[in-house]
Structures are given as structure tokens and as C-alpha cells.
Amino acid sequence: MREEHEYIELVALTRAGDDKAYGELYERTVTDVYRTVRFLINHVSDTEDLVQDIYIQAYRSLDRYDAERAFRPWLMGITMRQVKNYRRRRLTQFRFNQRIEKSDTGMEIDFSVDLISKLAHQPLLEQVRRLPYKLQQVVTLHYLNEYTQEEIAWILDIPLGTVKSRIHAALTKLRQKKSMIYSFENRKGGGLA
Q: Is the pLDDT of residue 78 over 80?
């Protein structure tokens, strides 16, 4: 609770024009924000820019921050919205580039490399990255950042039951993938004997 009170004091000082206070908020929270952004987007080169955008948006939104609510989940809500906007922009750009490439070359896109990499054994984090984005969000917030399910519901602005079902769905999918990899490796190993 002491830490949360310190966040609220820093927000009040920042609202009063103390830029050093916002620098302190940044220093105390940037590790969690950076780790979350880095995990949810695949382009390392864009991570720092997106983190900067998140803190600019947070600064602009401080006047709407409700001191009755916890600061870190509020900031993580901004983080999730910025990541969502980033992903939407990237998808639009990808689709546009895909259309241009198809019209320029008339060639079909080859997904065989992706299929082979999905069949290869990957660490758990790589499997999480392959989950649908909505499942990635709850897994990242719950297991990587250790937010409670209630905080995740507030951050993502979804019902608590939805958070629970997404966590359950993510864990089920991860177990299925692990089972498929295990069975693939056993067949592969058995065929070589």
C-alpha cells in the first residue's frame, strides 16, 4: 500500500508541474511496461518507440487518472491500448504490403516456413506468442506481470469471467500444443530406431 500511496503522490506532483516526479514514475514502472510491450510485439526495433508513446499518452492522461484506483493497473491499461493500436497499424500495413506484393509479382505467399517452425520444438514463451492476441494479453498480464484476475479485468475493461475463461483457454491451448509436440517427437524418435 505504501508503494501505491507514493505513486499517487508522484501523480499529484506531476499534475502540479513537477517533471522530476514524472521521471520518478517512469523509472519505477518502465521495467514492467517494457517487458510487457516486448513480449506482446514481435518487432524489437519498435519496442522502445512504443514504450515512449505509452508514457507520452500516460502523461497526457494524468488529469483523468482517478487517485482512488491503483496506478500500475491504470498505466497497464494504457499500455494494452497502445499495443492494440500498434498491432492494428502493423496489420493494416501488412495487408497493404501483401496486396501490393501480389499485384506486383502475381505470386502466392508461401507459408511453409511458418508451418515447419510451428512443428519444431520451441520454448514455452514462443508457444505463448503463438496464442491468439486476446489470450496472450491475459497470460502476459497474469503470469509475466503478476496482476490479479480482477486487475486484468480492469486493465482490459472486460468482465472478470472473461479473464478467467481466457486464462483457462490459453492454458488448455498450451497443454494441447505441448501434447502435440511430445507426440510428434515420439513418432519422430520411434521412426528412427
A: yes
